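thread: overnight batch results

M.L. [08:02]
morning all. the overnight job finished for the chain we discussed friday. pasting input first so we're all looking at the same thing
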Amino acid sequence: MRYEGNIFRPFSEADSYLLQVSIGCSHNRCTFCGMYKDRKYRVRSLVEIREDIRLAKDHCGDVEKVFLCDGDAIDLPTDLLLEILKELSQAFPALRHVGTYVGPQSTLRKSMSELTALRAAGLTKAYLGVESGDENVLKAVNKGVGYAEMLKAGQNLVLSGMNLSAMVMLGIAGRGAPSRAHAAATARIIDAMKPRYLAALTYTPVPHTALYAKVAAGEFTLPDAFETLEEMQQIFASITMDNLKFVGAHASNYLPISGTLQKDKARMLAAVEAVLASRDRKALRSEALRGL
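M.L. [08:03]
and the structure it wrote out:
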């Protein structure tokens, strides 16, 4: 298999064949993200993609899961995506899952009929970087959309039949009142969006990004570990939708915790509240073990 630059994927796609259908991210202006800053966005040719699928078939045999890289494969022309999905289904008879990162703007550029066609062709899971439901936060981190547009992008993905994983970021609003507003608005947008999965990460400054520069200059103050747990507690307490699978095991999080809301809500809240009550740093993942 051939790859250009560093390749990123959700941890839940660890056993997937990674097919790079584009280079970089079509938006690539989020202030906290450093994943694709070293490359210019472009779509790979169908000839190259077909060659990579053949190489994967020869090397791996049949596969069940594929993840489309890089940062925003939904931005590809729909006809091209449909052809890629067709090639994958023909090459891998056992294929049951194709996932990709999606951006809110590129998702909104697709009609509902296009999204539905992509789902019917085998695009089963979309990972949407929601980050926050707070208008001020979305503007500050330069997501390119506000609350209403982010919500519409997520709802369209759900309506298309795709399995939506919404990703949010603890600590991205800073400290105090902005943190509380961020947690409240994030719970509100998730309740309205109704994804199948909610994945939480904790903001970690990445060198050579705009937000890192603000942290270094003292213009943005990072919440401490317990303040990020207070955001998690508020989100758990505020979400009312049922059968939402919360995934908090990401390496950036101080307290790895997962479960299903509402079924496991009491247990999840109790786990967070016990650490907040004790303020025992030994109960937290150490800085040495945290990662991006």
